[in-house]
Please model this.
Amino acid sequence: MTTFRPIGLIIFNLFLLAISGSNGVSSDLQPVDEKILPPASADKSTRWFQGKSKQGARGVALVIHGLNLRPDRMQPLIEQLTESGIDVLNLSLSGHGDNFASRDGGDSSKDRLESFKAVSYEQWISEACAAYRLARTKSHQRKVPLSLVGFSLGGLIGVDLFATFPGVRFETMALFAPALKIHSRSYILRVLSPFPGLTLPSFSPEGYRANNKTPIAAYNALFKAIDHLEKNASPKINVPTVIFVDEQDEFVSFRRLRTWVEDEKLDLWKFFMLRQEASAKAVNIHHLIIDEPSTGKKVWKQMTGALVGHLLQD
Model:
């Protein structure tokens, strides 16, 4: 019994992390020098979706997906935004979607996983910064506000980008189960941080995951982002923000997230608490709240209404 319980706990937490779609050290990182950042690649890391409102452009949104989530699974959210007249730039972080180093004649799924094994916090934050510049340029051109819409890892990377770079600003933010504060049990994976090439199976629904496995390198990058935001959070990020979260989230700790928001005096941040409907049991992951199948029809309608109203400040 003395050996079984710790091993069982490790397996349990690995399962929770794997299904969440989402390892790290205390960070003394300085902001990435924008002069050395690579330009965003329109064919691999970013894709534009045009707003459809007859009233003309009403906003621009940078959308960032979760860890090991297919970027195109953000499409239901994107459609809500474009139907409301918001232009959307969808960012695919390295190791996701088409953003990977491909070999001639190679298998795309294998090549994507190999790129996933080589990711780092610095790489992801650089990609996010390059995408931000594209989105901000369009918002200036159209004279409309710029918003951040991020799920899990995407919310974390976007908020950390906002906090880190003096020139970065979002007028509003919508965060879906953002990995800003996670359950303490999730840090069990730190013990594997010296083995970035090691991969763990993903138990999230097949249609949602970008890769069948998630490398420790990706968890290392995620935890470093959490540590970095912890050090760099400031009143700067106190802009109108709505956080969509299920109190039963397996990965994000609502209690710790709420306490952090209060401690940082982010009084413009509000919570939208949701409960997964019975009709969403096919997905049955409380962390996954990005479409109707994962939330249920009624909850999804309430969420998207709140999303659009918040970003357009209606």
